[in-house]
Amino acid sequence: MNMINDATHVARHEAARAAAAAGGEFLTFRLGTEEYGIDILKVQEIRSYEQPTRIANAPSFIKGVVNLRGVIVPIVDLRIKLNCDSVEYNSFTVVIVLNVKGRVVGAVVDSVSDVLELGGGAIKPAPEMHTAADTSFITGIGNVNDRMLILMDIEGLMTSADMGLINDAVTH
């Protein structure tokens, strides 16, 4: 059964890569000195950072939960999850509220930049890297003027097994 889930994950990720290569609108944000882009259609809203309620025994990248208009939302610090050098909370720190597979999840980032429309010609495939770091959620590299934008499959990242946020067997 695990092979079927793995195959489904690979197929979804390849679909995300193809969608990124075709272009579209991306919300851009910063993690440290790097700029990332995610599919704008996955974004529900952007909120200022507020200290979440910590959950006992949760991984360090899950900061806790917040109550968002009656919905309990897990908050993931992408800076910790993606091994950024420093993690500081300041007035620019925001939570991107995402809707992935019908579940609301918050992602903490250093700051939000803007929304960019990228054509397929502005997106290059992500380089193959054989490192210990998981780069499977990078769908491509966008080039806008002199900016390099790392395009991320945010749904694939948030629904990955190591996150433990969404049970794939329940959500299909």
TrEMBL record:
Main localization (coarse) = cytoplasm
Where does the record place the CheW-like domain? 23-163
Entry keyword set:
Chemotaxis, Cytoplasm
Note the SUPFAM superfamilies from the entry. Answer: CheW-like (SSF50341)
Q: Cite a single GO BP annotation.
A: signal transduction
Q: Where in the cell is it found?
A: Cytoplasm
Provide the Gene Ontology terms for cellular component.
cytosol
* Name of the featured protein: Chemotaxis protein CheW
Recorded superkingdom: Bacteria
